Fold these 3 entries.
Entry 1:
Amino acid sequence: MFSLSIKRVAAVGIVLGAALILWKMRKMTEKPYTPAPWLETAKKLPTPSPVPAEVSSKIAVIKKLVPVKPSSRPAPATMPAKPIAPVGQVPQTIVLPPTQPPAAPLEWQGNDTSIEHPGEVVIRNDHQWVQFWAEHRPHEAAPEVDFTQAMVVGVFAGPRPADQFTIRMVDIRTLPGSLTVDYQEKLPPPGTFAVNVTVYPYQFKVIPRTTLPVKFNKLAPINPNR
């Protein structure tokens, strides 16, 4: 019995010794605990102290005394809201009147006609007008003329040796039994004649339609030399 107890005590002592040895070895192999740098920094930060009541009251007084300047930025522009038509009602559409074409000129004058002979002309209908314009400007369409309300009369001077020659109708008179057209040629000042220059002065215009016969009366030319 005595020898058995000694063996048990020896066995317990061996177990305890082994456990102590293992505990020491474990402590030697473990790394010492080091806290994170940010954690130490956070621990070192001072705790903010509350603002005294006297300082808070002074700050409130300063805010009341100093006026707040309004912002210099312009307010954002707002688009006006479009009116919404009631349910079941068709919105009105604005109908613009048709644009009128530009009115044809009532008079033509120059020295660039293709009609090279002198003379007078009376045009009373579209057919005559188209034929005349084809001779006057072969590469252009004839302008619109309402021959139910109007007619065309014109004069042509024929070939002249300078650009300064002109011809014009100075008066249109309604006489008993006829319509008289007075026309006159204007001569250039001396020294304006050019070599190898030929022009063909003309003028014709739209006048109110009449059934009276038309007579042309050539007046004496205007001569700047006199």
Entry 2:
Amino acid sequence: MYLYDAPEAHFCNKCLTQAELKENNQPTVFRRHSSRPRAPTMPRNAAREQKTDKNRRVFVTVGTTSFDALIETMDSPAVSASLKSKGYDGLTMQIGRGVYKPHRIAKKTLGFDVKIVEYLPSIEDELRDAALVISHAGAGSVFETLKFGKPLLVVVNESLMDNHQKELAMELEERGHVKWCVPEGLRDAIEGLADDGSGFEFARYEPGVCSLGEVLDDLLF
């Protein structure tokens, strides 16, 4: 069940947080509001606050799912060269259970380290150390990244049925928290990043709080 009945609907932070409860294909509920919520006052230059003495590493994740279109797009020496030109010095790609296995990016760009893994026990360390995160549009991965205050490029899988991911990505971009694209537009999105490894300016996400009773009420009634 997916409750989204009008393109003009808007979501509050409280309701967006409900998306964090979604795992795999379990239902995600967005609550309709009659008026547009006021955006919280948050710094627009959060990306600039990252320390410059750390590695400028990019972390790509598909979570526990598969997203071959994203991984195949990233599997390119041209993409690694573009990332290097934007101030990054390495890439960790978590590819999940997809069929496609990266092989072209093994031809490393000089001075650009590439690490490829299927799964990680936890992505917290990678998120903490990353200068830029490129993620599938799964709610779990998106909101976990936002908690770490990192610039986030969300890549939407348009092949999914009942694709609520696009609506979530569009809403978060409109609020200034992320930028989003589809796999075909990822190279252009990378080219649009800042040249100093800071990614892009974004508004920090402040999660709301939904009680279990409110979530059950939305699901059952």
Entry 3:
Amino acid sequence: MTDQAKQNTDLITEMIARSPAAQTREQALASIKARRARLLARPPVESRHDDEPDLTRPEPMPIIDDPDAFAAGFWTRFNSKEPPSTPRPPPRGSKPRIVVDNTKPQPPRKR
């Protein structure tokens, strides 16, 4: 090992030893185990916040007493909407669409 390489190795070793994050393998494994246990621990039910929604309660559903009248009203509202006066433009980046009308036979080509 050259003198320069030995100095670099000594410098790196010294920097690692001074680092507050430097740990032995056993210390690192113990801190990982403790952190994992802390992250995976479930909080007790009493410590949950009151502002969290209660996801166990069912959602309110509208009660329809007369389904026939509801359906008639729905179709009246649905059919009262007027179709747009101008067709919507094609989406950006779409290719032009070609409509082929095959109702009229084409005359045969002359060779």
